[in-house]
UniProtKB/TrEMBL annotation:
Protein's name according to its UniProt entry: Crossover junction endodeoxyribonuclease RuvC
Gene giving rise to this polypeptide: ruvC
Organism placement in taxonomy: Bacteria, Bacillati, Actinomycetota, Actinomycetes, Kitasatosporales
Subcellular location: Cytoplasm
CDD domains: RuvC
HAMAP family in alphabetical order: RuvC
Catalysis: reaction(s): Endonucleolytic cleavage at a junction such as a reciprocal single-stranded crossover between two homologous DNA duplexes (Holliday junction)
Length: 179
């Protein structure tokens, strides 16, 4: 499975592509940051994020895009920018018919480090170790994007089994009512 992880942000939008399957060594195919100038107007910044994500989709052809789920932060301006960049990433994937998965920061931290309260340095260290890199990706947004991709690859098999079980249960329940 090839996953593009997106750590959304207006100033720095982390992007990273990881390939592999759960239980096997993973491979980093690319990592970087889409940057926009803080003094540019919002429309131009969102357009720059879109163009950057489109380049990553063109270059790496992921099967899925994993985006950090936006959560409430104390700074409303920050959360709005994050939500807008997140929406752009989802739109780019949807336009191409690529499935999108959302993961919360604590889900990603728990999957990669074992603790949902891990700090950025711990996440960066584990991403470095898991992908056998010589140094942690910089800035932290890039490491976070790789962590999102890793999280999805590891969690996807369990999520798929759960979705299948729910669908099977729903089908049986519906069939029982119509019989």
């Amino acid at each position: 499975m090839r996953v593009l992880g997106v750590d959304p942000g207006l100033t720095r939008c982390g992007v990273g592509v990881v390939e592999g399957v759960a239980g096997r060594p993973l491979t980093m195919l690319g990592v970087g940051v889409v940057r926009t100038p803080a003094d540019a107007d919002l429309g131009h910044r969102l357009l720059a994020v879109e163009q950057g994500i489109e380049r990553w989709l063109d270059e790496h052809r992921p099967e899925l895009v994993a985006v950090e789920r936006v959560f409430s932060q104390h700074n409303v301006r920050t959360v709005m920018g994050t939500a807008q960049a997140s929406a752009v990433a989802m739109l780019c994937a949807a336009r191409r018919g690529i499935p999108v998965a959302l993961h919360t920061p604590s889900e990603v931290k728990a999957a990669v480090t074992g603790s949902g309260r891990a700090d950025k340095a711990q996440v960066g260290a584990m991403v470095t170790r898991l992908l056998r890199l010589s140094a942690p990706p910089r800035p932290a947004d890039a490491a976070d994007a790789l962590a999102l991709a890793i999280c999805h690859i590891w969690r996807a098999p369990a999520q798929n089994r759960l979705q299948q079980a729910v669908a099977l249960h729903t089908a049986h329940a519906t069939k029982g009512r119509t019989a």
